[in-house]
Amino acid sequence: MAKHHIEATVNGDDVEFLCETEETLLDVLRDTLHLTGSKEGCASGDCGACSVMLDGRLVCSCLVLGCEVSGRRVETIEGMAKGESLHPLQQQFLEHAALQCGICTPGFIVAGKALLERNPNPTETEIRYWLAGNLCRCTGYDKIVSAVKDAAVAMRKG
Amino acid sequence: MRYEAPKSLQGAVALLAGATGETRVLAGGTDLLVQMRADVVDPDLIVDIKKIPETRAITEDRGGWRIGAAVTGAELKEHPRLKQAWPGVVEAANLIGSTQVQGRATLGGNLCNGSPAADSVPALIAAGALATLAGPDGARDLPVEDVMLGPRKLALRRGEIVVSFWLPPRPPRSSDAYLRFIPRTEMDIAVVGAGVSLTLDNAGTISAARVSLGAVAPKVLLVPEAAHAIVGTRLDVAAQQRLEAAARAACRPIDDKRGTTEFRVDVAAVLTRRAALIALDRARTS
Amino acid sequence: MAENGTNGPSGTNGGYVGTRTIRPDGLDKVTGRARFGADYNLPGQLIGRVLRSPHPHARIVRIDTSKAEALPGVKAVITRDDFADQSSEFIPAGEMLMNYKDVVRNVMAREKALYEGHAVAAVAATSAAIARRALKLIDVTYEVLPHVIDVVEAMRPDAPLLHDDLFTAGVEPKPEKPSNIAKRIEIVLGDIEAGFKKADVIVEREFKTAAVHQGYIEPHAALASVSEDGSTELWCCTQGHFIVRAHCARLLGLDIAKIRVTASEIGGGFGGKTVVYLEPLAIALSRKAKRPVKMVMSREEVFKSSGPTSGATVKVKMGATKDGKFVAGFAELKYQAGAFQGSPVQPGVMCAYAPYDMENVKVIGYDVVSNRPKVAAYRAPGAPISEYAVESVVDEIAKKLGLDPIELRMMNAAREGTKAAYGPKFGPIGLEETLNSIKKTEHWNTPLRKWQGRGVASGFWFNIGGETCASLTINEDGTVSLMVGTPDIGGLRAALTNIAADELGIPYEKVRPIIGDTGSLGFTFLTGGSRSAFSGSMAIVEAAKQIKAELCARACKLWEAKPDQVEFSNGAVRPLGELAEKIKPMTIADFAKVAGKTGGPIGGYGRINAQGAGPSLGTHLVDLEVDPETGRVTILRYTVAQDAGKALHPAYVEGQFQGGAVQGIGWALNEEYIYGADGKLQNAGFLDYRMPVASDVPMIDAIVVEVANPKHPYGVRGVGETPIVPPLGAIANAMEAATGIRFTELPMSPPKVLKALKERSAGGMGAISRPPL
Questions:
Q1: Chain B residues with beta carbon closer than 8 angstroms to that of A129
Q2: Has domain B2-167 been given CATH number 3.30.465.10?
Q3: CB B187 to CB A44 under 8 A?
Q4: Cα dihedral sign for C151, C157, C163, C165?
Q5: What is the tally of structural domains in chain C?
Q6: Residue C141: which pLDDT band, with cuts at 50, 70 and 90?
Q7: Residue A103: its H or E element
Q8: What is the predicted pLDDT for the residue at C764?
Q9: Which of C239-263 are b and which e, b meaning 16 or more Cβ less than 10 Å from the residue's Cβ?
Q10: For B130, B264, C258, C740, which has the most beta carbons within 10 A of its beta carbon?
């Protein structure tokens, strides 16, 4: 069977790609579009390292087929910083030392952005439950929670 | 592996009915994609039902609510009024996986995955929900408790899909609740799940109830004995004890990596009581 | 030459050590640009996949690869026949030992498959789909053998035997029959029989812990490219690319110089990436296919085929006088090694009583093989298990004697001059300081409610040094390139840049650190043993010393000065005395401009075997709550105090404390390898291997105690491993406080907790009251 020809928007850019049915959006992002910021930690939706936004909705890109994104809008970690300026979450992750190895970081930042867009002033508990699908084995989550809180403050100040 | 995303029910049914080889319906994909990656299934045809309008809508219908089988958990949560009528159903759907999974996971997929531990199913059964099916012979409704026959085994006929769920009208002073037990706070499969829906009369006595248990038998159970134990009571301590006993008696769990038989029975009793108390509290204030 | 040995205030020049600088590699990690193991690709690369044994124990009668080889798109298939056998030789791997005879069998099964997931063959094909299809075409004939999973069962004389040439070492006379007990070890200090006679209270308990995985989020990945003459390039995620190079050279019969290994950014290791799995396979496949080969493990493969750490059975018997002095300690440890010998029982034995000043100690350890994946190092390998058992018994002694558990530990704490049971006399160590810090916290003094409990436990880890290189190169514009050979897993580059900037007296931003490949530096031992910041900083001090000496020498030539007329301080060579009136100081940038005219490029190269790693001790405090109706445990509050010697970068030191504590919480409460009667792992995924998620844990308060290590120029001690040692004991002790039950089996998962509560209730020790809803 021929590959699917898909047109979609990734980080605001029009993209076209070919994919097999069984290829996931994560496979397409990493192997075809060479956007390797989204990571594969489990391929089963249990670690969140592949988190992306699909039409404004936070999803695990390992749980979406590439052929499902036809005509849709995908946003990845690579599209978070605008030109020279980092997203406040990126800045706060750096300042709080909220990453150690950094493999989970793109997923946390994408997921954190989705939270702050819906809830500009989340409590610690809300942050923790929202991010429960993002595994981090290095930090114990402490500095990640602090970074998200402070990013929320920074974003509220504008 | 073929992928089709029909835009109509007829189209989906025709594809499924006419398919040769292994076929899978794709809603949220949160189970299907994992099974494909693990080589558990290797379908020849995938039919994505998300482009079919009937599967994607939440509408008021005959005094109740109709929820498309491919509506996501996140969409259920964000619906302005559904949560007031059926808080237990919404909270159950929202316990499936992470925020990310909520962006994809659906009630239809949760039911049709055929797992006795599916979180939304006990809540739907307690709610008295009907599943509306479409197939080559037309549409039909089945009570949700009759859809699943056993692990990975459904009552669906060849070519049939679950289109939507219908939640019946809510009398005053009614509410529901769903609780599940997992070792962590998130991200686990239910070791036990308990859904309770009830209605109070003017005096605050339970006039109707439905109780459902997940992960304690080969399929999600409707437990009429548990409902009988509390109907006509105000859920006093004696009624709670009868409720627990009925829940225990209904359990036929297995020992597995997620919990022992003994543990599941004990916790099923506890969760049923706790869920009933929450539903009662909600019904009083609804 | 005089040197500026002190640090100025935090600011532009100097004083970075001890401050929370932004990590130099951070931008790439928050933008997705950083390249981890699976992010490397080469033109023309093939995809490699591994065929793994479905049986926990089976003789491999025959492997027929002909059908797979005939599949279009398959470019190479390898099996045991592609690796020469190795003689028995033990070599250091992290803090453990390994044997090439076993390593060659672990990377590719030879006579037998010894665990479910053991590699049996591998293919390289033009796509992942073809590689997967090819695996299904490899026909392996197995003769299935009886298996053994449990450590105690594996020790029985009639247990299925994994290796018929394995005879227990360390026993006299040498056994005549082979067994699954690879080794017996023993350490003795004083006379425990005499000690127990002096005891007013003796507590004896047996404990059991489950095998747990390091749980790094990044699966193992390797990309190899071998040319016709055997020149090999390898990119992989590893804690030690020099070690990978050594192993691959040995296993593939290549000259070390022909292999160049580049460590990618690494997505967590915790000890689990100190050994090789895919790397030699990728090289062998690439050598055969003459094309680059990329291999990445699935999560299931990570769980089934890479090293967890041991599960164990531990007996502890301790005696104390009525006023609390520990007079004797005995322990017997039986550790799972997995399919090949080499569990971390040795450090387990050595650490068991290390936090305490005791005259009479005897610890016996057994290294036991069974049909599980070969264990790999995991953060303070072996220590959490034995110290959990001892800390539980210490808590019980405190209860029996009615003593405060912190006071009891304080009374018996090892301190400077204490002779450890495992040999050395301690220099300055910080256990008492951590106990004091915990005692002073508001946390320690906050009241608790019913079904809540508070626990405290201490922990010890040695830390290591070892072979380390670091280079500092002054670039033409006066900026500095810093290169080390230890992969950075948790902020190492930030910590080392702090040191380099301070040593040279230049702004932090002017130093750019990189992790050099194996061709760029001399042999550098791996990131492990809490050694990378400790020994890397020592090598940088050495390299900086060379640069300062060189600059001073060049200044002497330029200024026609004598060596005692110049000094290096604050980023410049400064003329002293009367010379200072005539000549302006020359900064590093000034020298860089005239480097060509004054003797050529300027650089320093620290090549050291770092000695004097100081142990780090810590004390953890935890509050938790038990749901008496379901056995579910919630961690309410957590405080860590640990001795860092000197925190080069406090935020990353705290991060080690916090991360280790949460890994320990997972180990204590929910993580475990669950096997079926068929000897197969049932929970090889993140869904059922239950590592803590963000909503499972509270904020982790971190108190950095600094008792300087006199053997390090800045006083540094390794900090990475100790934090995982105390949590198991602290949580078990808190569980006892909450429930009155001493839990002796990990994990303390809800079914176990509820069962214990019910049994106590049935035993007439009082009904369990229901909490208010």
A1: 185-186
A2: yes
A3: no
A4: positive
A5: 3
A6: very high
A7: none
A8: 52
A9: bbbbbbbbbbbbbbebeeebbbbbb
A10: B264
Amino acid at position B166, single letter:
W
Give the whole-angstrom CA distance, residue C313 versus residue C353. Answer: 17
* Shortest Cα–Cα distance, A111 to chain C (Å): 13
Q: Which residues of B touch A67 (CB under 8 A)?
A: 3
CB contacts < 8 Å between B and C, how many? 62
C319 assigned to some structural domain: no
To which CATH superfamily is domain A88-157 assigned?
[2Fe-2S]-binding domain (1.10.150.120)
Instruction: Please report residues of A whose CB lies closer than 8 A to that of C490.
Output: 100-101, 138
pLDDT tens readout for residues C408-427: 999 999 999 999 999 999 99
B264: closest CA of chain C, how far (Å): 9
Q: Tell how far CA C733 is from the center of its chain.
A: 25
CATH code 3.10.20.30 region(s) in chain A = 4-79
Q: Inspect the interface and report whether the beta carbons of B103 and A132 lie closer than 8 Å.
A: no
Q: What are phi and psi of C459, to 5 degrees?
A: -155, 155
Contact (CB<8Å) A48/B98: yes
Cα four-point dihedral sign C578, C583, C585, C588:
negative
| Backbone phi and psi for residue C189, each to the nearest 5 degrees, phi listed first | -130, 130
List, in order, residues 6 or more apart from C664 with CB less than 8 Å away: C384, C620, C723, C724, C725, C726, C727, C728, C730, C731
The reply to whether B62 touches chain C by the CB within 8 Å rule is no
pLDDT in tens, A27-37: 999 999 999 99
User: In this complex, do A97 and C658 lie within 8 Å of one another by their Cβ atoms?
Assistant: no
- Structural contact between residues C185 and C170, judged by C-beta atoms closer than 8 angstroms: yes
Write out chain B residues lying below 8 Å of A20, CB-based. 1
Angle at CA of residue C125, ends C227 and A103, nearest 5°: 85
Is C742 inside any structural domain? Answer: yes
Beta bridge partners of B132: B141, B164
C-chain residue closest to A83, CA distance: C31
Decide if C525 contacts C467 (C-beta within 8 A).
Answer: yes
Same domain, yes or no: C454 and C470: no
Q: C102 in contact with A at a CB cutoff of 8 Å?
A: no
Q: What is the pLDDT along chain B (286 residues), one digit of tens a residue?
A: 999 999 999 999 999 999 999 999 999 999 999 999 998 999 999 999 999 999 999 999 999 999 999 999 999 999 999 999 999 999 999 999 999 999 999 999 999 999 999 999 999 999 999 999 999 999 999 999 999 999 999 999 999 999 999 999 999 999 999 999 999 999 999 999 999 999 999 999 999 999 999 999 999 999 999 999 999 999 999 999 999 999 999 999 988 889 999 999 999 999 999 999 999 999 999 8
Nearest by CB to B100, which of A1, A22, A60?
A60
Does ipTM surpass 0.85 in this model?
yes
Of C629, C749, C758, the CB nearest to B183: C749
- Cβ B183–C682 below 8 Å, yes or no? no
Tokens of B202: 């003017």
Separation of alpha carbons C536 and C470, rounded Å: 7
pLDDT given for residue C14 in this prediction = 63
Its CATH architecture, for the domain A4-79, is: Roll (3.10)
The owner of tokens 């005259």 is: C359
- Among residues B92, B73, B72, B90, the alpha carbon closest in space to that of B81 is found at B90
Topology (CATH level 3) of domain B174-285:
Enolase-like; domain 1 (3.30.390)
* The residue to which tokens 């769920």 are assigned: B165
Residue C443 tokens read as 């946390």
B188 to C690: CB separation less than 8 angstroms, yes or no: yes
Parent domain of C554: 2-34+465-610
Nearest residue of B to residue A27, measured between CA atoms: B37
